[in-house]
Design brief:
Elements lengths: L21 E4 L6 E2 L5 E4 L8 E4 L12 E4 L5 E7 L5 E8 L12 E6 L2 E7 L6 E8 L4 E7 L8 E2 L1 E7 L13 E8 L18 E2 L6 E5 L21 E5 L5 E4 L8 E9 L13 E5 L2 E2 L12 E9 L5 E5 L8 E2 L1 E7 L9 H13 L22 E3 L7 E5 L6 E3 L11 E3 L4 E4 L4 H4 L5 E3 L4 E5 L2 H4 L5 E3 L5 E3 L29 H40 L7 H28 L9
Parallel strand pairs: 1-3, 14-15, 27-29, 28-30, 29-31, 30-32, 31-33, 32-34
Antiparallel strand pairs: 1-13, 2-3, 4-5, 5-12, 6-11, 7-10, 7-13, 8-9, 8-11, 10-14, 14-25, 16-17, 17-24, 18-23, 19-22, 19-25, 20-21, 20-23, 26-27
Length: 590
């Protein structure tokens, strides 16, 4: 392990699906277009384990910011948005607390994307804060997640926007790294510039400048940005700042943190005056007093872009200084500053993502627990799974017990790193699939108290390293030749559930034991009756000759003794069988 589109509930811990470009007014009911012609879609009917809230009326910043969605139950809550694999996207998440809960306690929480940490969100009581990131999508979806980090500080979000960018933009950055926006400013501008002026809906805010600098407006009617690789909107080039004297310089202060950070910076220039042959504007960019560019000569009616990648801290200085042959002071029209992320994760192993997806598709209840990357970031692994610590983690344990799962078990054989599978106390039906016994690392398999039927696969019954429990499945049998619930070593396996939830059917076992004895008993009785009659006839003949005999016949006595012995034998066999049936409910592995 992504403007408007059709939205789907993809997963939940909570999940939201769409196609980039997308604008989500979180907590809203309806769709609408705002003053910038951006169409927003609400998400109110897409979530189960969250609440839609409205900010206090006196705190409303805009219509988009008047509602929010808050997550109070799960540790990781995600929006999942379909995107083209390999596409470059801009994602912006906005947060306006507005004292929606009347506690005057704006929360803090983590913001994640595609298994990577994005930012620790620090919301304000009455100020809008937003975070923006640009990255290359590594699969056909991208997930943006909110994660709780402090007790009783519930994550919320006011708006989520995803924009597709041209794949050639910001091409100096390795696609294995993301760009976190530090600032994007339009120098000399009086208003914010965004869509529709910026077709990519980047937000350019007016810059705050010192009194030593002056704002100037361009005299060009049209400004061509074709030579600027990152496509700045012409509107941000129609104004600039400069100094009042030729020898002056411009110092830029983006506000870097105390600790070292990796920075990517774009500077944009466009001449504001059509110069004559006696005029020249030429300057050089310096970073920490080190020359960082060749002489920059801004073109009139066009754009020039300078990019730099460097390590910065609070003491870093950025300045534009005139060259010795320049007759005019330096100027600058716009600037973008980003922090460069650590190397992006490739996400959880795709084989596990595939298998977990099959489980989600089959058992819809899992959509309430799972969204985003299964294993990453590691503090926010999905509920009911365990993962390895590999760079590309594997899912090693799956616990779906007592979730009221029903229906047949899907094929998740791609999850070949599983060591433990626990599916007990559900209502899963159908046969036990052969792939379970073939999982190379599986050591514990608990299928107890379900409704599995048919034979136990040979891959399981012959697996000597596997601890297998299958009690509480009345219709389960070991051999395909017979559907009597018999273990692999020939002993009786009863189907009494461990929790007493299902009843076993002992009649086949009792009948299988008593019918042969019953037939044998009556065969002996028939023989004895025949023998008695023959003996009686002989005795009668003898008596006729001798005058008769006194007392009971030997045949009657013998028959009674034999009959009693046979009846005792039947009782012993039934008692032995009952003892076996109340034994261990797991299938012993030999």
């Amino acid at each position: 392990m992504a403007g408007c589109l059709v939205l789907l509930l993809f997963l939940a811990l909570l999940s939201f699906s769409g196609n980039a470009d997308v604008s989500i007014d979180c907590g809203a009911l309806d769709s609408y277009a705002d003053e910038n012609s951006i169409v927003w879609i609400g998400d109110d009917d897409l979530f189960k384990n969250s609440q839609s809230e409205a900010v206090q009326p006196r705190n409303t910043a805009s219509h988009v910011m008047s509602t929010l969605r808050v997550f109070t139950t799960l540790k990781k809550n995600c929006y999942s948005i379909t995107a083209d694999k390999g596409s470059l996207v801009l994602v912006r998440a906005s947060f306006f607390y507005g004292n929606y809960d009347k506690r005057s306690s704006p929360p803090s929480f983590d913001l994640l994307f595609d298994g990577n940490h994005w930012a620790t969100v620090k919301t304000s009581l009455d100020q809008l804060v937003y975070y923006e990131v640009m990255y290359v999508v590594k699969s056909d979806t991208t997930s943006i997640c909110l994660a709780q980090t402090q007790p009783n500080q519930f994550p919320f979000i006011s708006a989520l926007e995803v924009r597709n960018l041209d794949s050639k933009m910001y091409g100096d950055v390795d696609p294995n790294y993301a760009l976190f926006l530090r600032s994007r400013v339009a120098f000399g501008a009086n208003t914010t510039v965004r869509f529709p002026d910026d077709g990519y809906d980047r937000i350019w805010v007016p810059a705050r400048v010192s009194s030593e600098l002056v704002s100037v407006a361009s005299g060009a009617i049209l400004i061509d940005v074709a030579n600027a690789p990152d496509n700045p909107p012409p509107e941000v080039l129609q104004n600039a700042i400069t100094t009042s004297n030729t020898s002056g310089s411009i110092t830029l202060n983006p506000g870097f943190p105390d600790q070292d950070v990796s920075v990517y910076m774009n500077l944009y220039f466009s001449e504001v005056t059509e110069l004559d042959t006696t005029q020249k504007r030429s300057f050089i960019a310096y970073i920490d007093n080190m020359k960082s560019s060749e002489p920059i000569i801004p073109p009139y009616g066009a754009a020039k872009e300078m990019s730099a990648n460097f390590t910065a801290s609070a003491n870093t200085s950025i300045s534009l200084v005139s060259t010795t042959d320049s007759t005019l002071p330096p100027l600058i029209n716009a600037m973008e500053v980003f922090y460069v992320s650590d190397r992006l994760t490739d996400g959880t192993n795709s084989k596990d993502v595939e298998g977990l997806g099959e489980l989600q598709n089959t058992f819809s209840v899992l959509q309430e627990y799972w969204s985003g990357d299964p294993c990453l970031p590691s503090p926010y692994t999905w509920e009911r799974i365990s993962c390895s610590n590999d760079d590309i983690p594997r899912v090693t344990a799956l616990d779906l017990s007592s979730l009221d799962l029903s229906g047949p078990l899907p094929d998740f054989s791609s999850m070949d790193a599983l060591v433990t599978i626990d599916l007990h106390n559900n209502s899963i039906t159908g046969p036990i699939q052969d792939f379970l016994g073939a999982l190379p690392n599986l050591k514990d398999l608990n299928l107890a108290d379900n409704s599995f039927s048919g034979p136990i696969p040979q891959s399981i019954s012959s697996n000597k390293k596997l601890k297998f429990v299958a009690s509480g499945n009345p219709d389960l049998c070991v051999s395909g030749k017979s559907c009597q619930p018999t273990s692999t070593d020939g002993t009786i396996i009863t189907s009494t559930p461990s929790g007493g939830r299902k009843k076993s059917n002992k009649l086949p076992v009792i009948l299988g034991t008593t019918i042969p004895i019953f037939v044998f008993f009556w065969a002996i009785v028939g023989f004895l009756v025949h023998h008695k009659r023959r003996t009686a006839a002989i005795a009668a003949i003898t008596a006729g000759k001798t005058g008769g005999a006194n007392g009971p016949s030997v045949a009657n006595t013998m028959m009674g003794q034999v009959g009693e012995a046979v009846i005792n034998e039947i009782r012993v066999n039934i008692q032995d069988q009952t003892t076996s049936e109340n034994g261990d409910q797991s299938i012993p592995q030999q």
